[in-house]
Amino acid sequence: MKYTFDRFTAEVQTLLSTTKRIPASLLEVQVPKPGIPADLAFPTFRAAKELGLSPQQLAQELVQTIQIAPNSLIGEVSATGPFLNFSFQAENLAEAILNDISLTGVKYGHSDDGQGKTIVVDYSSPNVAKRMHVGHIRSTIIGQTLANIFRALGYNVICDNHLGDWGKQFGVIIAAVMRDGKPQVEGEAALIQLEELYTRYSNQMPQDAALDAEARRWSLALEQGDPAARELWQWCVTTTIQANQQNYDRLTVSFDHAYGESFYEAMLTGVIQQTIEQNIAYRDEKGAVVVEIDGLPSFLLQRSDGGTLYLTRDVATIIFRLQEFQPKRILYVVGSPQELHFRQLFALVRKMGYTAAVDLVHVAFGTISDTQGQPLSTRRGNMIYLEALLNEAMARALAVVEQKNPALAAEEKAAVAEAVGVGAVIYNDLYQDPKRNITLNWEQMLSTEGNSATYLQYSYARCCSILRRAEIKPTEELDLAAIQPKLLIHPAEQQLLKKLARLPSAIKEASERYAPFVIADWCYTTARDFGVFFEQCPVLKAETIPLRDARLALVSATAQALKNGLTLLGIKAPEQM
């Protein structure tokens, strides 16, 4: 459907067109700068140049020429210097927004822009035989949110958890287990023991060349199908997937596929041979396969011992995805340190002739640091594992819930604390530009004021509380025929309505910029504007019954839109806190 702001924009463009002064190619309008009391602006510079006028003169002439049609969404047109400014008609805006949200409900803000197009999102991708730690959370959360956003825009989204289950690291794990014995426990406990085995063996390798050779031998044996290597490998994969799934469930993360690197094993020989036949790669004197591309450091596709590398498997992955899914775009949600890897990968597959019809995009993100600004790492001793992080978040959130609403039943307190704690972790990542490094700050994450998930959830719960006292369910469809939206003309009501009108464009902008923070910012500013409305416009004690009902409809619309925004971010919205 065409949402209110889209219709408003179309009306402005049509109005400009009817003046017969503006060529169709110059009918672009924009959101005014902050502080300008208007909702859309038309900069006259380019049109004035074509007409031989000053921009200010053209703006004044257009103001005198324009006539607004009855029942238009446009209420006022004014000229400010070279800009022609357009404002919503207050009563018609209220009716249009409430109608939009009532008609679409949980789909408000969604569209069919991407219908018929497929996007593959590659994210999370933890290594097998290791616990997920805080370093994995950014890829997991950002990737899932981007998948949610593109699905909301009608795309066919395929989510792939590209597990790191191959290569020399697995040779180290197998060699360590063969030397020291297989863990006799399950779940995260087994992963802890595997990490200890891996670390102990890896630390000894620099001093003992035989250990390094043994790890390489097992890595190659795994690739060549050795039964003992394959059996241990499969146990590690199964154990890791089962342990990780608990974290994914808590983060509302799901995948369509979990094709690990091993899935592409059968394709690797063909990939290497193709690059050699196309004269993109060559074998050096030791037998390694080397790729040299102008402007990039040379890199290997195959080691001299016949083993393959991450990049070899990534090339096979792209080829498989193109053949299997026919995507228009493939997104790789991976940290900034891998930028060179993706430049090499994308350049290679382009030279191989595979990417004419697909966009390959590296959505990079920064690192997470502790409150002292130190990056989290096992070597520093400040690493935080994902399960422990989520448990800590829930425990801290439970203390907040106990303080805010001690009357809640214990089971409900636990459910709310889980939603609040996990939501805080998710939002702490998403409200910032992905490229920025971020800090774990518990007080800020769980604050009920300012830019935090808890504040947003509290705003939604406040909406639900108002509706509950009016005996209206938050999800209940209101009878707009019995309501008078045109009463909603108070400045705080209008500001909130205009913010609700922006959700569809915020979702679209977030997709274009691969920037979940655009939606997070919309949620925050909407919650803030709702707070102003709540303070300045009594709802249950409104001056008249019709005004009360109209404001209840606005509260209901706000609740729905806020929940839609939070859902896209993967954050649950409890009705009580």
Roughly what fraction of the amino acids lie in strands? 5-15%
Structural class: alpha/beta
Shape: globular
* Total count of strands: 12
Number of domains: 3
Helical region count? 20
CATH C-level label of the largest domain: Alpha Beta
CATH topology title of the largest domain: Rossmann fold
- Sequence of strands across the biggest β-sheet: 5-4-9-10
By CATH, the superfamily of the largest domain comes out as HUPs
Rg computed from alpha carbons, rounded to a whole number of angstroms: 28 Å
Distance between the first and last residues' Cα:
34 Å
Helix content: 40-55%
Mean pLDDT: 93
Structural description of this entry:
The protein is an alpha/beta fold and 577 residues long. The chain has three domains: 4-88, 2-Layer Sandwich (Gyrase A, domain 2); 118-369, 3-Layer(aba) Sandwich (Rossmann fold); 386-568, Orthogonal Bundle (Isoleucyl-tRNA Synthetase, Domain 1). 53% of the residues lie in helices and 9% in strands. The protein has 20 helices and twelve strands. The protein has a four-stranded parallel β-sheet with strand order 5-4-9-10, sandwiched between helices. The chain has a three-stranded antiparallel β-sheet with strand order 1-3-2. A three-stranded antiparallel β-sheet has the order 6-7-8. A hairpin with a 2-residue loop joins strand 2 and strand 3 (83-88). Helix 4 (90-104) packs across helix 20 (545-568), helix 6 packs across helix 7 and helix 16 packs antiparallel against helix 20 (545-568). The longest helix has 24 residues, at 227-250. It is globular and about 85 Å long. The model has no long low-confidence stretch (mean pLDDT 93).
